[in-house]
Amino acid sequence: MSKNATLEINGEKYEFPIIEGTEKELAINIKALRTATGGITTLDPGYKNTGSCESAITFLNGEEGILRYRGYSIEELAEKADFLEVAYLLIFGELPTTEELNKFHNDIKDQSHVDEDIKKILDGFPKSAHPMGVISSLTSALIAFNPSSVNVDSPEDMYLAIVRILGKFPVLTAWAYRKRAGLAMDYGDDSLGYVDNFLKMMFKKPSGEYNSNPVIVNALDKLLILHADHEQNCSTSTVRIVGSSHAGLFASLSAGISALWGPLHGGANQAVIEMLEAIKEDGGDTKKYMAKAKDKSDPFRLMGFGHRVYKNFDPRAKIIKVAADEVLNDLGVEDPILDIAKGLEKEALEDPYFVDRKLYPNVDFYSGIIYRAMGIPVEMFTAMFALGRLPGWIAQWREMRLRKEPIGRPRQVYIGENHRPFKDIDFR
Ligand code: CMC
Question: What is the pTM of this model?
Answer without folding.
Answer: 0.92
